[in-house]
Write a sequence for this structure.
């Protein structure tokens, strides 16, 4: 399935998710809050996380249904599924609003960030609103078990931010720490999006575990591709400055591998740059990219992402063949091929 076919297949679900979110915002009384929230939610985005919730719920429902009862296309997901799915978009958007304040970011997805259009306080409060509303909906629509899963994922996200900041301060070169950060920052929420969708559809223990495995592997691979795009992407497509992670001193897998595998002279260059000023790292970014390429850091990260996607695809084999499974497989392949 190519990207055009995938996007065409997902279009009805994305439309329903967007309509459900827009309806949710009509109850906001503050006009400024409504503007900031709308900017944070509808300023681009692929709806990756809520789509996973909807698709996994559909897949589990069809798999658990006795043969001959109905075809997959005859199944009509309940409206509450979309309300539960949008929880994950709210949480993701809240984290981006907060991240842009912390990073003093000027743009997000190629447009002015909320903290630039308004101010840092306004952006933080809008993120707080989205986070609070997400957790409220998680409990109201998903129930206690869904709320617990989502709460654990958000806690892991916050812990990962602290671990990443500490890794920058300490120049932590451990792959173990890198993957721990990834699991918290991206894998936890994507894994929860899949497991909550399965739980909503009445999945048994094994099915929930399979969906969690799929989401975790997909989330890790997604972030690893992000780390590659940070060095090798096109800023016009990603909406982010190339090399931003290195300039900020973040220890991503291509850099960690290069530090471990490069010779003494080139390793010292990288170490000195990491210990120095951000302006110097920015000025010598092209040189650093060449060192990572020569030592195989990009290839190593790419192979790791491919291995994770293979594990994600394998976890889907326990479910019936259907359009939802095909679409989830298409999303997994998209994670590897995306350029933004």
């Amino acid at each position: 399935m190519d990207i055009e076919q995938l996007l065409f297949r997902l279009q009805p679900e994305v439309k329903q998710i967007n309509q459900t979110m827009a309806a949710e915002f009509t109850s906001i009384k503050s006009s400024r809050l409504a503007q900031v929230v709308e900017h944070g939610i509808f300023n681009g985005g692929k709806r990756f996380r809520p789509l996973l919730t909807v698709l996994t719920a559909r897949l589990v429902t069809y798999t658990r249904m006795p043969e001959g009862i109905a075809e997959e296309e005859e199944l009509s997901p309940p409206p509450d599924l979309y309300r539960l799915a949008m929880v994950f978009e709210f949480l993701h958007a809240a984290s981006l609003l907060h991240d842009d304040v912390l990073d003093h970011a000027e743009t997000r997805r190629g447009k002015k960030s909320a903290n630039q259009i308004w101010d840092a306080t306004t952006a933080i409060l809008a993120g707080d609103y989205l986070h609070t509303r997400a957790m409220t909906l998680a409990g109201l629509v998903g129930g206690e078990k869904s709320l617990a899963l989502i709460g654990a994922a958000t806690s892991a996200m916050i812990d990962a931010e602290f671990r990443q900041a500490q890794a920058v301060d300490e120049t932590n070169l451990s792959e173990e720490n890198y993957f721990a950060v990834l699991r918290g920052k991206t894998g936890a929420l994507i894994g929860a999006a899949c497991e909550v969708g399965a739980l909503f559809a009445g999945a048994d223990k094994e099915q929930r575990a399979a969906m969690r495995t799929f989401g975790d592997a997909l989330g890790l691979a997604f972030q690893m591709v992000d780390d590659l795009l940070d060095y090798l992407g096109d800023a016009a497509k990603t909406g982010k400055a190339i090399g931003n992670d290195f300039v900020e001193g973040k220890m991503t897998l291509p850099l960690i591998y290069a530090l471990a595998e490069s010779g003494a002279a080139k390793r010292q260059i990288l170490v000195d740059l990491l210990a120095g000023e951000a302006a110097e790292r920015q000025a010598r970014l092209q040189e650093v990219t060449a060192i990572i390429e020569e030592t195989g850091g990009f290839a190593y990260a790419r192979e790791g992402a491919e291995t994770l996607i293979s594990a994600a695809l394998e976890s889907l084999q326990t479910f019936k063949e259907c359009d939802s499974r095909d679409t989830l497989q298409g999303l997994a392949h998209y994670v590897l091929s995306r350029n933004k």
In short: The first helix runs from residue 3 to 24. The mean pLDDT is 91. Strands lie at 107-108, 111-112.
